[in-house]
Each structure stands twice: as C-alpha cells, then as structure tokens.
Amino acid sequence: MLKKLTLATAVSTILMSGSLMAASLTVGFSQIGSESGWRAAETAVSKVEAEKRGVTLKISDAQQKQENQIKAVRSFIAQGVDAIFIAPVVQTGWGPVLEEAKDYGIPVFLLDRGITVEDDSLYMTAVTADNVLEGAVAGKWLIDKVAGKPCNVVELQGTVGASVAIDRKKGFSDTVDTVDNIQIVRTQSGEFTRSKGKEVMESFIKAENNGKNICAVFAHNDDMAIGAIQAIKEAGLKPGSDILIVSIDAVPDIFKAMMSGEANATVELTPNMAGPALDALMAYKDKGTIPPKKIVTESNLYLPADAKSQLEMKKDLGY
Ligand code: AHR
C-alpha cells in the first residue's frame, strides 16, 4: 500500500560514492493518442530518450479523451511511479487529479501542451514551444509572402480546448491583424487529423466560390494541411500556388509536399519533448534542482529550400 508523500522520493534515491544518485526511475506517460504524424514521432522519440537514460517509460494512450488521461494518472499513482508525464489533451480540468499526485509526492511534468491551474506547484515544469510565437511566425511568413496583396485565409484549428490550438490561433490572428490586406474568412477545428482537415477544407472550398476566394490555408498542424492539400487538388486547384499552405510541426510528409510544390511553409515543433523533461526529472532526483516553470523548445520556420535536408535529417533521427 502506498503512503502519501515522501515514500516515492525516498525509495528513488540511493547513496553512491558519497553523493545522491537517482536509482533507476520509472515514469508513467499519459499520451494523448495518435492523431498526427507529429504525435507518433513524439511517442517514438520519448521511448528512445527514456532508453538512452535507463528510465523505464510506461505509456498510456488516452485516445483523445481527458477522462482516460485522468484514469491513467490515477493508475500511475497507484503503481508508485517516480514521476508522471502528461501531454494534456485540453487545457482545463486538471486540478483535482494533480492534487492527488502531489499528495503522493509524485512530480508531474507536462509535455508539448500547457494547462491552466490555480496552483502552479501542481506540476514541476512544462516542456513546450511558445505556441503563440509559432502562430505569429506563420502569420509573419504570410504577410511577407503576399506582400500587400489582398488575401483571404481559411484556418484549420487544432483540438478544441487544447492550449496549442488556442495559442497558435492567437499568435496568427494578432499578427495578420496588423495588416489590412489579410483577412481570416473561415475558421474551424480539424481536430489535428488529416481526415478531418480534409473534410473541413472541402466545406471551406464549397463556401468560398469553389476555393477561388481562398488565398491561403493556415493549419494548426501539418496533418490537417495535408488533408487540405488533398481537398484542394480534388477541387481542381493547385495547392502551393493557387492556394498557399502554411502549417506547424515540420513532419516529413509536409517536406515531401513542399518538394512537390504543394506546401509553402511550416513552423517546427520538435517531437523531442521527453528528453528535456527527463533531464529535468533526473536533475531533480539527483540534486534537488527545481527546473524553470517552462522549458521552451525552438520554433524555426522551414521553407521548400529546406525540405530535402530536413527530410534527410529526420530520417537520420528516426522520426
Ligand atoms: O500538441 C502538439 C500538437 O498535437 C501538434 O502540433 C499536433 O500535430 C499534435 O496533434
């Protein structure tokens, strides 16, 4: 039977060579699901990063449901893991279950999405990109690309209530709102999936004079952009030229689309969120180091000229 507080911490450290070193750690990871190529890469990379550090990683797939994530967290608490990683599907509703983890002294690390809680001591750190910045980088690219010409944009949002969807939307719209020539004429969730991205794009095309009124797509992830590309082609238009495509993630498939001239720009989201979280966990267990509340990953912009080298690099990294 687990005892509240300190037990997990106490048994996870052993005295070696006069200094405290982390004993072999077990981490429970509540993953959102497998909605996108990026998500699949993040899961794969997390396993590799854990193995590199000799950490046992138990992954639970929540199939896009917060209730499944909450159950997984409770199960990890019952198993007495050393830490819990959560990629939170939505931003709100985490307080009570994180209180439970805190009561048992189990540190929680957030990966790739943020949460809003009254007490931010309920989690140790969040490893994420600055997603407002990611939206802003996409918006700035579009402003430069259209160079003052009128441009109607359709937006494919990510999962409703996900921090990344909220932040990317804000970053993009705040940026394009600084110019008069760009208007977001339609916006809807494509749930971060290729199939829903295609379905929503088809409805946008129908509503906008068979796509002729659309100048650009801003998709909150590459998978929805790829779905949109399919819809544009089926409507007899050319993605990448008749309709510009800008998205987020930088997964291999968007670089392939760039090489075929069908996508124009993507903003990187590294799938390696687990590596920095594991480093922070180990420093905390070994030396009691408290990490910064946010560990921010890079948000570089990639264009067709980068596609070949990016594809090769990702292949080498095994993404
Ligand atoms: O939280 C990160 C987002 O989730 C990625 O951009 C998207 O592809 C994924 O589904």
What's the topology here?
Layout: H1 7-11, E1 13-16, E2 19-22, E3 26-31, H2 37-52, E4 56-61, H3 66-79, E5 83-86, H4 95-103, E6 108-111, E7 125-129, H5 131-146, E8 151-157, H6 163-176, E9 182-189, H7 194-207, E10 216-219, H8 222-234, E11 244-249, H9 252-259, E12 265-268, H10 274-287, E13 294-297, E14 301-302, H11 307-317
Parallel strand pairs: 3-4, 3-5, 5-6, 6-7, 7-13, 8-9, 8-10, 10-11, 11-12
Antiparallel strand pairs: 1-2, 12-14
Concise overview:
The chain has two domains: 7-128 and 271-296, 3-Layer(aba) Sandwich (Rossmann fold); 131-269, Rossmann fold. The chain is built from eleven helices and 14 strands. It has helices spanning 7-11, 37-52, 66-79, 95-103, 131-146, 163-176, 194-207, 222-234, 252-259, 274-287, 307-317; strands at 13-16, 19-22, 26-31, 56-61, 83-86, 108-111, 125-129, 151-157, 182-189, 216-219, 244-249, 265-268, 294-297, 301-302.
Task: Describe this structure as you would to a colleague.
It contains 11 helices and 14 strands. The longest helix has 16 residues, at about 35-50. β5 (about 85), α4 (about 95-105) and β6 form a beta-alpha-beta unit. It has about 325 residues and is an alpha/beta fold. Residues about 5-20 have low confidence and may be disordered. It has helices at about 5-10, 35-50, 65-80, 95-105, 130-145, 165-175, 195-205, 220-235, 250-260, 275-285, 305-315, and strands at about 15, 20, 25-30, 55-60, 85, 110, 125-130, 150-155, 180-190, 215-220, 245-250, 265-270, 295, 300. α3 (about 65-80) runs parallel beside α4 (about 95-105) and α5 runs parallel beside α6. The strands form 3 sheets. It has a 6-stranded parallel β-sheet with strand order 4-3-5-6-7-13, with helices on both faces. The protein folds into 2 domains: about 5-130 and about 270-295, Rossmann fold (3-Layer(aba) Sandwich); about 130-270, Rossmann fold, CATH 3.40.50. The site of alpha-L-arabinofuranose has 13 residues, from α2 and β11. Belongs to the bacterial solute-binding protein 2 family. This is Autoinducer 2-binding periplasmic protein LuxP. Its main location: other.
